[in-house]
Write a structure and sequence with these properties.
Blueprint lengths: L6 E6 L7 H14 L6 E4 L2 H7 L2 E3 H4 L3 H8 L20 H13 L2 E8 L1 H16 L5 E6 L15 H20 L5 E7 L6 H4 L14 E3 L7 H12 L4 E7 L28 H10 L5 E6 L3 H4 L6 H19 L5 E10 L2 E9 L24 H7 L11 E2 L2 E2 L5 H4 L5
Parallel strand pairs: 1-2, 1-4, 4-5, 5-10, 6-8, 6-9, 7-8
Antiparallel strand pairs: 2-3, 10-11, 12-13
Helix pairs in contact: 1-4, 1-12
C-alpha cells in the first residue's frame, strides 16, 4: 500500500452525548490535515455499519471549515450509533473476517472508535485480532460517555455538558418548586447505572440563595427505603419544599436495582431499568401527605446541546485530534486519556493507555467523596466537577432555532 492510499475509518457507538460530534469533527480535521491519510470514511451505526458495508465519505461531506464547525455543536451522533457486543473470535470468527475484509476493501489503515467502556471492548477485540493475524492497521479508542465511568482518565467527553445541563435543570426546578407556598417533595431521576457522577453534578445547582438538592442518592451507597423516608421527614422539619436528586441505578442492601424490570438483560449483560423516580414517588405517597412529583430527565441529559459546556466541546475535539496523531505515529490498541495537572487554574494533559485497562470496567465515585449518611456529596466532588462545566458554546440560529448539521442519511431510513 502506497502512502497516499492510506485511509481512515471512524465510527460512533453507545449512548449519544452533546460532545461526541465534536470528537468526530476532531478526527476529520486532523485527518484532513495529515498527509498520511487520503480519504476519511465514516461507518453508519458503529461496528454494525462496518459489517453491513454502510459508510459515508466524510472527506467530501466536510470539505469546508464551516461544516466542521456546525458539526461540533450538533447533538447526538452524526454517524448513528449501535449497542452491539462484538462476539469473541471463538464464538463468531466470521464477523472478524468480514470486518477486516472491509478494511482491506477500503484500504483502511487507521480505525477510530468513539464510545464508552462497552465500545472499548470492541476496540480491544479488533486490535487483538489484528495483532494475532499480522494486520497492519492501527485501532484507537476515543472516549465518550455522560456517565464519566471510564477507568484511568480524569473524566470523559460528554460528561461536562451533561453535568452542566443537570445542574442548570436542578436550579430551574428549584425556582419552580419554591414559587408555591405549600409542602412538596420533588424527585429528579438522573442517568447513572452503577456510577453516580452525573447525579452528583446536581450539587452544582447550589448557590447563595438556594441550597438544593436537599438530598442526593448515588449507586455507590446502598439505598434503604426506610432511611430515605426518614431523611425526607428530617428535612421537612425546617423546609416546606424538598428536592431530591437520585441516580436511576440506586440499589438496595442486597445489590438489587430499585427499578429493575423483569425484562432480559441487554447484549452487554446490563439489567433493564425503568422508573426509579416514579417508584420512589409511590413510596413517599404511602408515608407522607404532601404534594409529590417525580421528574425523569431521560435523554435530555445527553442531547441538550443548547447548554453544552465549552470546556467539554473543546476537549472532545482536542483528544480526537491527538488520537489521529498517536495512531499515525504508530500507536494502536490504545484509548486516549486526559489527566488533570491542575485544578485551579484547570489544566489537563492528553496521553494514551492500553484499551485493556478500560474495556468492561467502571470507575465509580470514591466513597470519601460521599457523606457518611450516603445522602449527599462532599466538597471535593463538587470541586472536581466544577471546572468541567465552564464556558458557553456559540451556536448559530435560523428562524429562532439552533442550526445543526443535517442527518439526512439517518432520517431517510426512518420511513418504511
Amino acid at each position: 500500500m502506497s502512502l497516499n492510499e492510506m485511509n481512515c475509518l471512524v465510527a460512533q457507538s453507545g449512548g449519544p452525548t452533546s460532545a461526541i460530534n465534536s470528537s468526530l469533527s476532531g478526527v476529520i480535521e486532523a485527518s484532513l490535515e495529515n498527509s498520511s491519510i487520503n480519504t476519511i470514511y465514516g461507518a453508519i451505526n458503529g461496528i454494525q455499519g462496518v459489517l453491513r458495508d454502510e459508510i459515508l465519505n466524510l472527506s467530501e461531506l466536510f470539505d469546508k471549515p464551516s461544516s466542521i464547525n456546525t458539526l461540533k455543536t450538533t447533538p447526538s451522533m452524526f454517524l448513528g450509533s449501535c449497542r452491539y457486543k462484538l462476539p469473541t473470535q471463538e464464538d463468531n470468527l466470521d464477523e472478524y473476517k468480514r470486518i477486516f475484509a472491509f478494511f482491506d476493501k477500503y484500504n483502511i489503515k487507521f480505525f477510530f472508535y468513539i464510545g464508552g467502556n462497552d465500545s472499548m471492548d470492541t476496540v480491544l477485540k479488533l486490535n487483538n485480532y489484528a495483532v494475532e493475524n499480522n494486520y497492519d492497521i492501527r485501532i484507537m479508542g476515543i472516549p465518550k460517555t455522560i456517565d464519566n465511568d471510564l477507568m484511568d482518565t480524569d473524566h470523559t467527553p460528554g460528561f461536562g455538558s451533561a453535568a452542566k445541563y443537570v445542574a442548570t435543570t436542578l436550579l430551574e426546578i428549584s425556582h419552580d418548586a419554591y414559587c408555591y407556598n405549600i409542602p412538596s417533595v420533588t424527585i429528579v431521576e438522573i442517568m447513572g447505572r452503577n456510577a453516580g457522577w452525573l447525579t452528583a453534578a446536581s450539587a452544582l445547582a447550589r448557590n447563595d440563595y438556594i441550597n438544593t438538592p436537599d438530598l442526593i442518592y448515588l449507586p455507590e451507597v446502598a439505598f434503604c427505603t426506610n432511611q430515605f423516608i426518614a431523611d425526607i421527614k428530617e428535612i421537612q422539619k425546617t423546609k416546606k419544599n424538598v428536592i431530591i436528586a437520585v441516580s436511576e441505578g440506586i440499589k438496595d442492601e442486597t445489590g438489587q436495582y430499585i427499578s429493575a424490570t423483569a425484562a432480559p438483560n441487554d447484549s452487554f449483560g446490563h439489567a433493564q431499568l425503568s422508573g426509579t423516580g416514579h417508584r420512589l414517588e409511590q413510596l413517599i405517597k404511602e408515608s407522607i401527605d404532601c404534594k409529590i412529583r417525580s421528574v425523569e430527565l431521560n435523554v435530555l441529559q445527553r442531547s441538550a446541546a443548547h447548554i453544552a459546556s465549552l470546556t467539554d466541546i473543546m476537549e472532545a475535539s482536542e483528544i480526537a485530534k491527538k488520537a489521529v496523531e498517536f495512531a499515525v505515529n504508530g500507536e494502536t490498541g490504545k484509548m486516549v486519556t486526559m489527566h488533570r495537572t491542575k485544578n485551579a487554574p484547570y489544566t489537563i494533559e492528553i496521553t494514551t493507555i492500553p484499551v485493556s485497562q478500560v474495556a468492561n470496567k467502571e470507575k465509580k465515585i470514591p466513597r470519601e467523596w460521599i457523606n457518611d449518611k450516603g445522602n449527599n456529596v462532599n466538597q471535593p466532588l463538587i470541586d472536581y466537577i466544577k471546572p468541567l462545566i465552564q464556558g458557553e458554546v456559540k451556536t448559530e440560529f435560523n428562524n429562532g432555532l439552533p442550526t445543526f448539521f443535517p442527518i439526512t442519511h439517518l432520517t431517510q431510513r426512518n420511513h418504511y
